[in-house]
Amino acid sequence: MGPLSYPKQKKDLELKQTLKVYMDNQCDITKTADKIFIHRNTVKYRINKCSNMIGTNIEDPVHSLNIRIALYVSEMIRFD
């Protein structure tokens, strides 16, 4: 997950949180936007940015599973 694994900047933390909520809502942009109280176009922008940072297609089932696992692991192992 590259720089999103353990974000140090606020913008990267927002991207990671958006990605997590997006994955938790089965990649539904509208549900994600509703959950985190942002416009759906902002969700699209952030997910596209995450995809570019990670260097993979987030919607691909195999990559999606890997991302979900990485998000879970990064939450379990926090380095503060």
How does this structure look, described?
Residues 16-72 form the PucR C-terminal helix-turn-helix domain. It holds the Pfam family HTH_30. This is PucR C-terminal helix-turn-helix domain-containing protein. The protein is mainly α. The mean pLDDT is 92. It has helices at residues 10-24, 29-36, 40-54, 61-76. The chain has a single domain, classed as Arc Repressor Mutant, subunit A (Orthogonal Bundle), CATH 1.10.10. The longest helix has 16 residues, at 61-76. The chain is built from four helices and no strands. 68% of the residues lie in helices and 0% in strands.
Oligomer: single chain
For the record, the CATH class is Mainly Alpha
* Net shape: globular
DSSP summary: helix tally: 4
Helical fraction equals 55-70%
Low-pLDDT ranges: none
CATH names the topology as Arc Repressor Mutant, subunit A
Task: Count all strands and give the number.
Answer: 0
Radius of gyration: 12 Å
Q: Tell me what the CATH architecture is.
A: Orthogonal Bundle
Quick one: CATH superfamily?
PucR C-terminal helix-turn-helix domain
Helices and strands, with pairings:
Blueprint: H1 10-24, H2 29-36, H3 40-54, H4 61-76
